[in-house]
Each structure stands twice: as C-alpha cells, then as structure tokens.
Amino acid sequence: MRLPLLFATACCISISHPALAGEVQVAVAANFTAPMQDIAKAFEQDTGHRVIAAFGSTGQLYAQISHGAPFEVFLAADDTTPARAESDGLAVSGSRFTYATGALALWSADAGLISDGAQLLRSGNFEHLAIANPKTAPYGLAATQVMQQLGLTQALAPKLVEGQSIGQTYQFVASGNAEVGFVALSQVSRDGEITSGSAWQVPAALYQPIRQDAVLLNTGADNDAAAALLDYLKGEQAAAVISRYGYGH
Amino acid sequence: MIHIRLKQQLAAFTLDLDLTLPARGISAIVGPSGSGKTTLLRCIAGLERAEQAFIEVNGHCWQDSQRGLWLAPHKRALGYVFQEASLFDHLNVQANLNYGRHRSAEPASDQQATQIIELLGIAQLLQRSTSGLSGGERQRVGIARALLANPRLLLLDEPLTALDPQRKADILPYLERLHAELDMPLLYVSHSPDEVARLADHLVLLDNGTLRASGPLQTLLPRLDLPMAHSDDARSVLHGQVSACDDRYQLLELTLDGSPLQLRLPHSALPLGQRVRVAVQARDVSLALEKPQHSSVLNQLPAHIEAIEPGSHPAQALVRLALGDNVLLARLTRYSVDQLQLQPGLPVWVQIKAVALFD
Amino acid sequence: MSLPLDSADLAAIWLTLKLASLTTLVLLLIGTPLAWWLAHTRSRLKGPISALVALPLVLPPTVLGFYLLVALGPHGPIGALTQQLGLGTLAFSFSGLVIGSVCYSMPFVVQPIQNAFESIGKRPLEVAATLGASPLDRFFTVALPLARPGIITASVLGFAHTLGEFGVVLMIGGNIPERTRVVSVQIFNHVEAMDYASAHWLAGGVLICSFVILLLLNRRGRLTVMPGARR
C-alpha cells in the first residue's frame, strides 16, 4: 500500500515541475521571426520555460509596449528603439545588448541579374529598386547609406520604392514588381547559401552596422524566465542559429 | 381585325388560345383569377415572349413564331395601362405625358393631344409632381400617357381595381368617353361585371388558359351555358337610341335595336337619336302570361321564352327571353316557372323593374 | 497657430483626394452596369459574381493587396497584359493604386446601386418599354434617374472608403511621394517613426472628414425618405 502511494506522490511532483517553470512574453522584430522560432524551441527544451512570442514591426511593437502591452522582453530590429525604451523608463536599465547584427544584401528574384551588385546599381539597368522605409526600418537606413557611399543617391532616387518593413520589401522583389531590392541577408540565405535568385552581399564597410538590440522590459524584471531567455540569447546555441540565418552575432 | 394565337406553358397550366377580335371598340377579357388574362396581355405587349405565337393587330404583325418574327415591346405601337398607375416619379405630369409621345413614330397631333387631355380631365395637373396626385388622377394620367403615343392597340389591365369605389365612379365616365370618341381598339381585363356591362362591346371569357367563349357582349352575357348568367348580379345589356323625352315626368324613351319595342326610364333629357346602352339585372325582370293591367311597373313588353335552366340556387330558375332582336335574362323561382307552366317557345309579357342607362 | 503638417503631408492629402475622386468615378462607370446586371440577371453566374464583388467586405485588405501585387507583377495576369499593351507593370504607380482601390471599394459602390435598381422593380421599365423606349433608353431615362439616391450613396461611400484605404496601398504602393504615398500610409509612417503629433493631426483629419461625410449622407438619406421632399 505504501509504495504505490509514494509513487503517486512522486508522479504528482514530477508532473507539476513544468508548472513551476516560467513563461516569458517576447516582442520580436519581424525580420527575426524564423531564427527566434528555432531559438525558442531549443530554449524551451533546455530550460522548461515557455516562450510566447509576438512578431511585428519594431515601431508597432514599441507603440504597443508604451501603451501597456504585457511584453517582458523586446527584441528590436535596431538599437535606437530599445535605447528609447530604456530612456523612457519602460525597460530595465543596463539590460540592453546586441543579440544579432543584420547584414544587407542586394537581391533579385532573377537568378541571372546580379553578378556584381555595385556595377548593377551604377548601370541603373532596372526600373524599380526596393528598399525598406529608411525612416522606420534599419535595413532601409543602411540601404540609403550604401547608395550614398557609392555616390548613387541622386541617380537612384527616381527608381526607389519603399516597403514599410523589410518583409514587405522582400515581397516587392520576390513578386518581380521590383527587379532588385535591398533586403536582409537573413531573408535570402541559409547556411551561407543564397536560397533563390541572385544576390550581392553588401560589404560591411558601406553601411553602419545594423545592430539589433534586446532589452528586458520592466514588466519582466522579476521574471526568471525572461532573464533566462536573455542569457540564452547570448549563449553558444543561439549564436549558432543566428549565424545560420545570416546574421552576425 | 386583331388576331391572336398563343401557346405558352405557365406554372399552373398552358395558355392556349386562338382569338379574333374586332378592329375597334372595347374587348373585355374576363375569367377567374389566374385564368391567364394578364399573361395574355403581357404576351400581346411582348413583355412576355410566348413560345408559339401569332399576333397581328389591324394588319401589323408583331409576332409570328413560325417565321421567327418577334418585335420587342418598344417596337410595338401599343399602350399599356397597368393596375397601378406606374407614373415615373422623377418626372412631372407633363413630362410623363411626353415620354411616350416623343418616342412614338406617329404620335398624337397637338389637337388630338389637347383633346385627350381634356377628355381625361387632367389639363390642370400638367405642371404638378406625380407625388401629389390622387389615385384616380394618377390612373387618368397613366391612360393619357398611353394614348398620347397614339397606339394601334391599348391594353388595360384592371386599371380601376386599385381604386376605391368613389374614384372608380369618377374615372368610369372618362373611359366611356374614350370609348365613344376614340377609334382605336382596347383590350380591357376586368373583374368587375359592372365595368364590363358599361364599357365592353366584345367579351372574351378565359378559363384555365383556354378560351371559353368570345363574342359580342349582349349575346354572351345571357348565355345560360356561361357563368355570367349564373352569377348573383347576372344582367343583360340592350342597345337602342333615344326616341322621345318626357320633360314633365323626366322620363326617357328608348327604341331597342331591331324591334319596335320601347323602354322608358327616369333620366334627364338626351338628344333624340343618341345611341345608348342599358343594363337590366336578371333579378329585376318578372314574367306574366297576359299583359298586366294596373301595374306600377313602367316597362311591360311582349317576348318569347327561348330557354329555361336551373339557377345557381335550387329554388331558382333562369329564363332566356327574345325581345325582338335583343336577348333578356330573367331570374324566377322554380315555383313560378311550374305555376305558370313556362316552357321554351311560349309568348309572355316581361315586366322590367329597373333599367340602368350608360350614356 | 500653424498646422504641424509638412509638405509631404499636404502632398499625401492631395494625392488621397485625387485617388478617392478618380476611384469613385471609375467605380461609377463600371459599377453601375455591373449593378444593373446583378439586379436583373437570372444567370447562374450571379451568385459567384456577387460573392466576388462582396469579397473586399470580409477580406483583410492585405490579402487583396498581396494578390494584387502578384497579379500586377510581371508574372501575374494583369502584369502580363499591361506589359503586352506597352504600359509596363502598374505596381508602385498611381494607376496601380486606382486599380487596387477600385477592387477594394467595389462593394461599397455596387451594392447600393444594385439595391436601388432592385427596389425600382420591373414595372417602370416595362411601362417605358410599352411607351416605345429601347433598353438603353429605359436605362438612361428611367432606371438611372430613379436610382439616383442609391447612386449618390454609392459615390459617397466609395469616396469615403477609399479615403481610409490602407492595406492595399501599403502592399502595392511602395510609399512613393506624390505618387503612392496617401494619407493613411503617411499616418503609418509617422507612427512608425514615433512622430505621434503629426500622426494625430492626419488621423484626426481623416476621422473628422469621414464622420462629416457619413453625417451628410445620413441627413440626405432622411430627406429623400420624407414624402414630398424630393422636389
């Protein structure tokens, strides 16, 4: 009689163990969707915590956070928005760090179009060049820096079409409506290979690094799971995933 | 002449007719609800396209399915007056009247137009909006609108049914004047025996999509094999002309067509020789074997019994009488028929208690 | 006090008004015959076509925008056609926005006109036919004038709905100043850039403008229902 009872109690304890594990709500910049899903899966397996992730544009996520959305960790697509969250008193100061560095690519859905990207840009041999909105998207800002460095700002201005996000910019190019566009390398490469079309990985010297910063929000200050996730993002396993998706770490 | 042959499958039955109608005058189309009267009119107008049809109006062929001929409604020179006067509410009365006139190949002349507007009593309405008109006024405008296009055929689908009795009484005289003064044929669908007795020259009786009878009004009304004679207000229609006026007693004397017989009735004076029609209800006619003496009944005329049939009520019998060339219907009790030993061929005296005159 | 609206905002406002006007005009031209057909046809296609017209009522605009982007692209059917006609592709152009807005606002124009045509019924048209009016004549002299209240409602709704269009423009517009950057996109830009003051001014303007339009429409609607007030 005693043994089964003991066994049942043990079962109860072991079953209830995951319930003791925490839950963390993360706001994630849309460009980091795929790597975040991989990282979250690994993180949940390793720690037993649950990740509830919401994906959106950095600006929208910030608007939601500043109006009381219950996110605990914020993975932005830039470094200014998390800094602003900190200075606005929405985030735990000192918690901010760069979890990934974006790389810019000039991409076309046409496999034969891009051999030398800079050369193509100079030739202007296309009707539309898609970039992300430089006012709101870091990849868009980086694209304008590239054009400036190449001295092509004026020449390319009439050909520019802007996507509201880097995802939409990708869409413009993927559908062929724009022949070329500046997109995130992470969107068009896996494990160092371009997945479709043709691309030119823009030399890092041509634009300011696209730092994607993470920050711990006040709502998650006392949440162990939130702290664990931020630690995990700094770790080896996350780094492997991040670089596989074409980001620097 | 108007020739209509139609075969059209309807939901409940097949409309299957072969009809010849006089080239002028009013032909009334009667029959129970759902017997195909409106469909017949719509087929004639081309609003419905009958599968097999031949429609010819005074020499103009509108449809001949054997030749593959079908004229769209707007190419048929016809007027159509619907049950509810469907005036165009975005146009005033004058513009409504002009609508058909401006589109007609041979519109009414200015003089005819003035006459029609006078005839229907709408001269003072011309600048009015349609929304302020009474039901009777609307219907008169609707009829004038159709007439001003000067059609070869005017179709009227129960034009008075939607009106209350007072409005009906207001508008009937206008229709009678139309009948007297216009030279175009009218097809008139009606449910009202009163309207039919007043207006129709020719009667078409439909039943379940087939032609039950077609002929002059005064021969069809008293036919004992047709339902009209058996209705509660069965009546005969007689034609004649004014032969004398008695100013002192305010009595009018009519000489019936095709006979020397005369009818007298209370009425103000009319011009001598004017043609009139009168209706006599079957229940207002009684019979005697000899000329009644000392009776208050004004009209006592010699006649012959043509036929006797049981009435719709077991106590009653219907007697058809020849009054010169005219036919008169009398409704008696069967008791009286047996008491007087009435039988076809017997000469009798008829007494007529009331006569309605339609001038 | 000066409005905190810069020239880009004003250009967006002007572009939006231009887009809404042109879209409404195009919709009246193609929506009226379509509404007429829907009101009178006994074709089996009526159901599917009605559903197609009504789709933008329930679809997220981004879905419509996405398919438009694909359709307008060089490999899409519309794109192939416009390229054959020598027009190039229409994404990122004002014409492309007009096409998108026409699809997006279609039900708001077609349905009121269709309802108006249906409520007229067959009778006035039959009367006109018996008075010698050909089908085209009947359409212009009877059906259109009688459907006027419905057509006015349709124009106002089409205009107002296009004013507020966002998802479709976002998907096919490309945010090009004076060509595709309409007010709603400009508001989005301001929000994204965290310039909430400018966003408020523009958004408030759209809100008030739409409210006033609907208010006027409502008052008109009451007036036309009142008997005798028509003339």
TrEMBL record, chain A:
InterPro entries: AvModA-like_subst-bd (IPR044084), ModA (IPR005950), ModA/WtpA (IPR050682). Molybdate binds at T58, I166. Residues 1-21 form the signal peptide. SUPFAM superfamilies: Periplasmic binding protein-like II (SSF53850). The keyword Cell inner membrane does not apply. This is Molybdate ABC transporter substrate-binding protein. Belongs to the bacterial solute-binding protein ModA family. The complex is composed of two ATP-binding proteins (ModC), two transmembrane proteins (ModB) and a solute-binding protein (ModA). Keywords: Metal-binding, Molybdenum, Signal, Tungsten. It comes from Pseudomonas abyssi. The gene is modA. Pfam families: SBP_bac_11 (PF13531). GO terms for molecular function: metal ion binding; molybdate ion binding; tungstate binding. One of its GO terms (biological process) is molybdate ion transport.
TrEMBL record, chain B:
The keyword tRNA-binding does not apply. GO terms for cellular component: membrane. This is Molybdenum ABC transporter ATP-binding protein. It holds the Pfam family ABC_tran. Coiled coil: none annotated. Residues 294-359 form the Mop domain. The gene is modC. Residues 4-233 form the ABC transporter domain. One of its GO terms (molecular function) is ATP binding. InterPro entries: AAA+_ATPase (IPR003593), ABC_transporter-like_ATP-bd (IPR003439), ABC_transporter-like_CS (IPR017871), Mo/tungstate-bd_C_term_dom (IPR008995), ModC_ABC_ATP-bd (IPR011868), Molybdenum_import_ModC (IPR050334), Mop_domain (IPR004606), P-loop_NTPase (IPR027417). Keywords: ATP-binding, Cell inner membrane, Cell membrane, Membrane, Molybdenum, Nucleotide-binding, Translocase, Transport. It comes from the Bacteria. It comes from Pseudomonas abyssi. SMART domains: AAA.
Automatic annotation (TrEMBL), chain C:
One of its GO terms (cellular component) is plasma membrane. SUPFAM superfamilies: MetI-like. It is found in: Cell inner membrane; Cell membrane. Pfam families: BPD_transp_1. Residues 13-217 form the ABC transmembrane type-1 domain. One of its GO terms (molecular function) is molybdate ion transmembrane transporter activity. Keywords: Cell inner membrane, Cell membrane, Membrane, Molybdenum, Transmembrane, Transmembrane helix, Transport. Its main location: membrane. The chain crosses the membrane at residues 12-39, 51-70, 90-110, 156-176, 196-217. It is a multi-pass membrane protein. Part of the binding-protein-dependent transport system for molybdenum; probably responsible for the translocation of the substrate across the membrane. Belongs to the binding-protein-dependent transport system permease family. CysTW subfamily. This is Molybdenum transport system permease. It comes from Pseudomonas abyssi. The gene is modB.
